[in-house]
Specification:
Glucose Oxidase, domain 1; Aminopeptidase; globular; 8-stranded mixed beta sheet; 22% strand
Amino acid sequence: MLNGPRFIVLVGLCLLSLGIPWRSLHSDQPPNGQPAISVARIRADVQYLAGDELQGRGIGTRGEDLAIDYIAGQFEKAGLKAVGDRNTFFQAVPLVTVTTGPKATLAFVRGAEKTAFKLEDEFAGVSRTQQSEDFDAEAIFLGHGITAPEFGWDDYKDVDVSGKVVVVFTNEPPSDDPKFFGGKALTYYGRWTYKYEEAARRGAKAVLIIHTNETAGYPYSVVRKLKGAQIQRAAGSPALAFAGWLSTRAGDKLLACAGLTVEEALKKADTKGFKAIPLGVRVQGHIPTAVQKIVTRNVVGMVEGSDPVLKSEAVIFTAHWDHLGVGKASVGTDDIHNGALDNATGCAVLLEMARLWAAQQPPPKRSAIFLATTAEESGLLGAVYYASHPVVPLGRTAINLNFDTVLPLGVPESVVVSGAERTTAWPLVQETARKHKLAIEPDKNAHLGFFYRSDHFALARGGVPAFSVFPGEKIQGKPADFARKAMDEFIAKVYHTPFDEYREEWDFSGYPALMRFAFDVAKDAANATTLPTWAPGDEFRPAREKSGVK
């Protein structure tokens, strides 16, 4: 475990900024006809799932077995029906783990001069062909690597990147206009996953994303990984020999070949009319790769609806159970990435929501599915798999409410439901918020693309009206900047590090308020006469219509 004066000081700062007062004596006051929400039980769930015994809940490990057995056991105790494989609570998700070997090299060659990057410190990534790769290819700077005809933007215009190494930034052109790349909110074009997907579609050999804290929204330590899970590649599908990241320092070295710094290149990338810049170098990569087939598991249970017809439809609650497992620590000596906030907290909400829903008599008309997903940290893979193999068809799934990293800061007086405003369930969400005396806040982290970074996105892509539910920045009895400072501190010092550990002093008193709101949104959707959909013109509306919902 971490120890010593430096650890104590840092943890003290994190606790203060994360809103860690002494335990609140707040007790849930249930509305008439609803059972109480147990804050003590939520705390116990977080404490167990974030315990060292679970070794960071890495997929394909003993920690996975312990985590999913616990969640399934709690579902069973709550009275949920097992609707996974062979009448169990488990849905098998076949994946492969891809690990870059310690002798991997990456360098660029200009004339007779060869400049090597240092593994992990300056470059990181994995093969997406799911095999060892050696390449020697021309490098070209593609700005943000976006083709978005609806916004009049094409970084690939008049450029053939077949067989080349594409160098890009994550994120997208800055905007205050909601009609241009969503204004301040990041669209999917800004996500690193899109950069890799688009370049692969165009035949690129490899992609190197230059990391900056501002464009990525998190420090380089988060992407400094040489291992990841992937869906098994279909034969003949396009794939990158290397999907990688460069540190800012490495980016400066490479871009200097074109007379640019990272800062200067980013300004060019942000400018309308940007044109691709050949870097005049060849990038050489040696990527030894180990591949292992694994089967990881989602955990899924159901509470059947009371209506003989509508019970074939469902609302769905999600939270991911996985985290990063045991790995090289970026700070101190602790190598367990416990994932207490990310996402033992969301799992605890999911479990208590399942208990609450199952205790209703009679149940709502539609059924409710409770899904704890695997491999979220690897790219939402468990949710992607469920969307392709749903218990209830997506065209008969009313709404998805997702819980991911619910900071225990006290009682919220506002909520963030980014994406709800894009659905026809928006009036229902607004009315429910008014009923619970909760203001609806815009997502202050929309520029970081949070909508596209959690499991609800996989359901949304399948057409289901889907969004995450977060407490807002208005916290009862706290300064206006309290929650903002807490989130900034979390992202800068705790996110995806061993510091994300359970703390006895955390204040879970606000969870019931958030849960009651989410409960009523889902309950009204479960009892509504029609299924909600996405607003006309929304990017997910065609998928909803394809599934049969007009």
